[in-house]
Write a structure and sequence with these properties.
Elements (H helix, E strand, L loop, with lengths): L8 H8 L15 E3 L2 H9 L5 E4 L6 H8 L3 E6 L7 E2 L14 E4 L6 H11 L5 E7 L6 H8 L6 E4 L6 E3 L3 H6 L7 E7 L7 E4 L1
């Protein structure tokens, strides 16, 4: 019987969206813009707080959608992409006003570190909302260093593919067939203890 699979092991890892199994060098400050529809989906199931700090804002795709929905948003980024306060390394931020909640789509390679730093920064009772690959649920290190200490209050799994386009080139991504990567919103509330609720949106 003829086989119709023409890929290889690298192809499998690319489909899964694994950063450490590609044939190209990883871009430490690579820019992947998030389709703003991700905000709309979250708002349908979760009351996003009014004051949002977006520390990896890129060109402002998530920030602008939040502003459109009436939120007050503070946007920063390490790299100047023409939006927000630039030259700000989130990991160098030592404190923020207690009114801020943090929402972003972090660099996946540093996802756990981003979540931990965000939880450290926000005030008790405030929220950390991260748009991450569903596979962020996996991993021994994440279990020990993150989930055993701070389990999310909610995980909202997107039932349809939401695009994260390299250099914000959504048109090219759509022409190329879209995305095979599954995403979810992970929501932590600082100080909350309980069982994680998983929902599909």
């Amino acid at each position: 019987m003829a086989k119709d699979w023409t890929g290889n092991q690298i192809s499998i890892f690319k489909t899964l969206g694994a950063n450490n199994h590609t044939d190209h060098d990883y871009e430490e400050n690579g820019f992947y813009a998030t389709d703003p529809v991700a905000i709309d989906k979250l708002k349908r199931v979760f009351d996003i707080p009014h004051y949002i700090y977006e520390p990896m804002c890129g060109q402002g795709h998530l920030s602008e959608r939040l502003i459109k929905h009436g939120h007050e948003v503070w946007s920063t980024d390490l790299v100047d992409r023409g939006y927000g306060d630039t030259g700000v390394n989130f990991f160098d931020v030592e404190s923020i006003d207690k009114k801020w909640n943090i929402l972003t789509n972090p660099n996946y390679r540093f996802g756990m570190e981003t979540v931990l730093h965000a939880i450290d920064l926000v005030a008790e009772g405030n929220y950390v909302m991260m748009f991450l690959k569903v596979q962020f649920l996996e991993g021994k290190k994440r279990k020990v260093n993150l989930y055993d200490k701070f389990n999310p209050k909610h995980v909202f799994i997107s039932s349809e593919r939401i695009l994260c386009a390299k250099n914000a080139d959504f048109e090219r991504m759509i022409k190329g067939g879209g995305s095979a990567v599954a995403y979810a919103w992970f929501v932590w509330q600082k100080g909350w203890k309980g069982k994680t609720e998983i929902e599909w949106i």
